[in-house]
């Protein structure tokens, strides 16, 4: 946000204080930009200085630590919460309205795309058809066992690696499990096309300064690849020149899906559209019930339909070597 203010023509070095782990909590500057993790343990007297609070990604305000901050802002006259996504549940909406005010939806993603304020979006749902042998092996498994199988499945990760290396433009690859999938997938991509492209790995332990450097470098690049965890890159990252997003791990959360798509919808001069590759997995054996993550795909399809997104579904036969 600090660097975005500079892009918008303001002077954050004069007006803004960045507050994060290890920085001074007190300042004479009139605007404090902080992560909620850095201030939620402070005494409520600290918060008496603020007359305005603006919470970006306000859907996260249901977290206990963040609601605690809001409860300490007794003298804060103006409370503004902003988000592109709610989870569709009334209890979530009512909780946020208790912290801020009655919510108002001012626009939708589809409307912004139609007004040319966001990039065009096309979603290609790639449904990987696993071998009959593997379908039989996964029949009756738990959700955790299915996720373990998908995250560590070599041929599935090879397919994703080949997709990355064959796709032009800047690419954001999102995965859920850092050790099991994210790092091995990054290494596979680096080994195959790292000589010709800049490949970056970002997850929870990546320092903030390094993430900001990657953001800056990708904005100046045409063919970079960011392999990142959903937790670090599904929310609040502003990179205009993302041309492709790959969902390497299945998700059903409406907030997580829409926030992840939002990472690539920023406009850029040389960017005509965002292409999203939504990778799903068919593990149905002999007409048994749908596997867990195939059910999650149905949830995402419902989200795409509700949002009016353009998508097509492409079956892909996945072969074991």
Structure commentary:
The protein is α/β, with parallel strands linked by helices and 321 residues long. The protein has two domains: 2-108, Rossmann fold (3-Layer(aba) Sandwich), CATH 3.40.50.300; 110-317, P-loop containing nucleotide triphosphate hydrolases (Rossmann fold). The protein is built from 13 helices and eleven strands. It has helices spanning 2-7, 12-15, 64-72, 90-99, 109-114, 132-138, 143-152, 154-166, 178-193, 208-219, 230-233, 254-262, 292-307, and strands at 16-19, 31-34, 52-56, 78-82, 120-129, 171-175, 199-202, 225-229, 244-247, 273-282, 310-317. The strands form three sheets. Strands 7-8-6-9-10-5-11 form a seven-stranded parallel β-sheet, sandwiched between helices. Helix 8 (154-166) crosses helix 9 (178-193).
Give the structure's gist in a few sentences.
By secondary structure, this protein is an alpha/beta fold. It has helices at residues 2-7, 12-15, 64-72, 90-99, 109-114, 132-138, 143-152, 154-166, 178-193, 208-219, 230-233, 254-262, 292-307; strands spanning 16-19, 31-34, 52-56, 78-82, 120-129, 171-175, 199-202, 225-229, 244-247, 273-282, 310-317.
CATH classification class of the largest domain: Alpha Beta
C-alpha termini separation = 46 Å
Which structural class do the helices and strands define?
alpha/beta
The CATH superfamily title of the largest domain: P-loop containing nucleotide triphosphate hydrolases
How many domain modules? 2
- N to C succession of SSEs: HHEEEHEHHEHHHEHEHEHEHEHE
What's the shape? globular
Count the helices. How many? 13
Question: What helical percentage do the residues reach?
Answer: 25-40%
Corresponding CATH architecture of the largest domain: 3-Layer(aba) Sandwich
Largest sheet, order of strands side by side? 7-8-6-9-10-5-11
Give me the CATH fold name of the largest domain: Rossmann fold
Rg on CA atoms, Å: 21 Å
- Average pLDDT level: 89
| Strands, total number | 11
Spans of at least 5 consecutive residues whose pLDDT stays below 50 are: none
Largest sheet: 7 strands, parallel
Strand content: 15-25%
